[in-house]
Amino acid sequence: MDTLHYLILSMLLFIVGAVGFIVKKNIISIFLCLELMLNAVNLSFVAFSRQLNQVHGQIFVFFVMVVAAAEAAVGLAITIVLYRNRNTLNVDDADVMKW
Amino acid sequence: METAFFYLFGGIALLSAISVVAQKKVFYSAISLIVCLCSVAFLYLALEAPFIAAVQVVVYAGAIMVLFLFVIMLLDPFSAGILKDKNKYLAYFAVLLGAITLALLLPFLRSFSGAHTTRHTGFSTDEVGSVKHLGQVLFTEYLLPFEITSVLILVAIIGVVVLAKRQRRP
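Output (structure tokens, whole complex):
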């Protein structure tokens, strides 16, 4: 199977995630779309790792997963604090720093 | 064989990814994302990366998504689920932008197509993704990033405990 097919699939997954990131209003949905984009990038890392016959791409995937785990934990803690203080999950309601 | 495997699990991954975005309720989005992550793990198996596939299922679909589901159920799922998305105009605009990105990237990606370019690594092809080789490279060449990663995790743990602790009302 050609690397190109995996790259196209990875790109499609990334674009779906990016579209969801723009469209969604709920902060947890936005986190889910973020995970989807990270996952798409991981897929292209592994595809390149096989094409070049080197292990470095897989090690990068390992690090990306660690960072994704840390990011999800901190992000969800922030979500809980936001819900506790504002009683909302809508990102449009948390716009104090916008203006 | 591998072609059928790719189209089966790639199709499942793509459909469930679309389902993540299309679902109205957050809970169903999270379940769709679990399906997507598991089918990508099968694609990792096809790409001769069994360790990454196992980590994908255990850490991603296991730990991280359980954390997500826990938070979704902890907060009120029904008030969270029926939030209406932003206006339709923005959704069409986002899909249009995605299509433009796709059209711009496709000719660029074609330059990567071709047979395996083998580099001399001292390992044969089926050894590259093995746990032994992965650990060997991770604990020699990437030792410093690995240690820094542990500090990152520690910072994340402390940050989460500080954030989620119930603040005392003054």
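The longest helix of chain A spans residues 56-86.
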